[in-house]
Amino acid sequence: MKNKVILIASDQFGKGEPELGAAVLENFLVQLKQAEQKPVAIFCMNRGVYTLTDHSLSHLHLKELEEQGVPVFGCKTCVEHYGLVDELKAGKIAGLNHFMELAGQHEVFTIS
User: Fold this and answer.
1) 45, 64, 77, 91: which could form a disulfide with 72 (CB 3.0–4.6 Å)?
2) Could you tell me which residues come within 8 angstroms of residue 84 by beta carbon, excluding any fewer than 6 positions away?
C-alpha cells in the first residue's frame, strides 16, 4: 500500500451481505495494520464515515493505524450529513479539497 491513499466509501467491503462485508473490511484493516508498508493516508466518505464511529468495529483498527502514523480523515460533508460529528472515535474531519490534494499526488485504492 506504499504511496497509496485508501478511500473507504462504504461501511463494508464489497456488495452483498452487510455483515460479511463489514467483517471483510475489518479483516482488511487488520492486515493493513500488520503490513510493513502503510498507505500515505486513509480518507472515509459516504457511508465509509461510519467506520470512524462506534457503529463499526473498524474504528478500533483505524485508530491503531493512526497511532502507527497513518493519517485518517472523514469527509466533512458526509460526517455532517449523517450527524456523526460528535461520534468520531478515529480520524479527523477534512474537506474534499484535502482528498483532492492527496488524490492528485498519490494513487487511490477505493473500498466500496
Assistant:
1) 91
2) 49, 50, 52, 53, 74
